[in-house]
């Protein structure tokens, strides 16, 4: 009996050997450094102080950085949900080769490096890129529109990156919807929009919550896309953390910013799951 109890832990051992040294320990060191003090020589001096947190939470610049990041994360999550929901509904109703082909289209961007995808969007959105050249050729504009290295271009790149993370959970939830519920709703006289609102959306809530969590947390910690496509005057938290650590050598301050970001993501996960259990208990058990 004791050997059987050890079997699950043996299965978890390979993952633990990767997570502990390459994830848990770096997080622990970052959390420890957030309470240290940055020295003028560019090293973090052992201490125990809340000065780094006080600086981040009391400086308008850092508050603006976190505000920018939260706004972009909410915007990307909302846009991804609006685009992904009808697409996921169609995908969930497909069968056979058609469904496999569309799934392949959804998964394909995930196999490409995020750096390559960002450079692809740079080619498309540049002043001399495909979009501006097409608009100029059609006579819709007289001079190129500034999209790249602006908030709009960054939003497009992030939306393309995180859209699959919204589609997949939605498809998983919608495929569990019993078609007999739709027929019963129609037989009882409900219209398409009423059925969509009262049957489809409640059944899709687990996918909505899971997709929103994945997209929101991903945008909060995204460094590559804002760095390659973002606007210099619209700073997000991940590039700001890198700048403080690598350029200013403020490792303790960067640790405090990283810890606050992680706490924000954790708070989102806990609150979203609590709200789901409170207001949609049927969805929490699907």
Automatic annotation (TrEMBL):
One BP term from GO: transmembrane transport
Stretches assigned to the ABC transmembrane type-1 domain: 66-272
InterPro entries noted in UniProt:
MetI-like (IPR000515), MetI-like_sf (IPR035906)
Pfam families noted in UniProt: BPD_transp_1
Q: Does the keyword Cell division apply?
A: no
Q: Write down any Gene Ontology CC term.
A: plasma membrane
Location of the protein in the cell: Cell membrane
Q: Which UniProt keywords apply?
A: Cell membrane, Membrane, Transmembrane, Transmembrane helix, Transport
Organism expressing this protein natively? Roseomonas acroporae
UniProt-recorded name of the protein: ABC transporter permease
Oxidoreductase listed as a keyword = no
Membrane topology listed for this record: Multi-pass membrane protein
**Which residues span the membrane?**
9-29, 70-91, 98-115, 153-174, 194-216, 249-276
Q: Which family does it belong to?
A: Belongs to the binding-protein-dependent transport system permease family. CysTW subfamily.
Source domain of life: Bacteria
């Amino acid at each position: 009996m004791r050997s059987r109890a050890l079997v699950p832990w043996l299965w978890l051992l390979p993952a633990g050997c990767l997570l502990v040294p390459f994830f848990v320990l770096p997080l622990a060191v970052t959390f420890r450094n957030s309470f240290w003090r940055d020295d003028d020589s560019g090293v973090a001096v052992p201490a125990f102080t809340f000065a780094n947190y006080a600086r981040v939470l009391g400086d308008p610049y850092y508050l603006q950085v976190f505000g920018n990041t939260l706004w972009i994360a909410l915007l990307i999550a909302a846009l991804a949900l609006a685009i992904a929901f009808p697409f996921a509904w169609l995908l969930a109703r497909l069968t056979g080769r058609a469904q496999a082909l569309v799934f392949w289209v959804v998964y394909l961007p995930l196999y490409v490096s995020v750096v390559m995808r960002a450079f692809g969007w740079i080619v498309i959105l540049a002043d001399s890129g495909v979009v501006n050249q097409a608009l100029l050729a059609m006579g819709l504009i007289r001079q190129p529109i500034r999209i790249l290295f602006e908030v709009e271009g960054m939003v497009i790149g992030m939306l393309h990156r995180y859209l699959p993370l919204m589609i997949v959970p939605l498809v998983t939830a919608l495929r569990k919807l019993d078609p007999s519920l739709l027929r019963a709703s129609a037989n009882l006289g409900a219209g398409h929009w009423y059925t969509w609102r009262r049957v489809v959306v409640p059944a899709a809530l687990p996918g909505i919550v899971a997709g929103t969590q994945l997209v929101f947390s991903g945008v909060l910690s995204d460094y590559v896309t804002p760095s390659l496509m973002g606007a210099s005057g619209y700073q997000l938290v991940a590039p700001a953390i890198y700048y403080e650590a690598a350029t200013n050598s403020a490792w303790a301050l960067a640790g405090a910013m990283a810890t606050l970001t992680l706490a924000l993501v954790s708070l989102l996960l806990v609150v979203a799951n609590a709200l789901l259990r409170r207001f949609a208990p049927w969805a929490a058990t699907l």
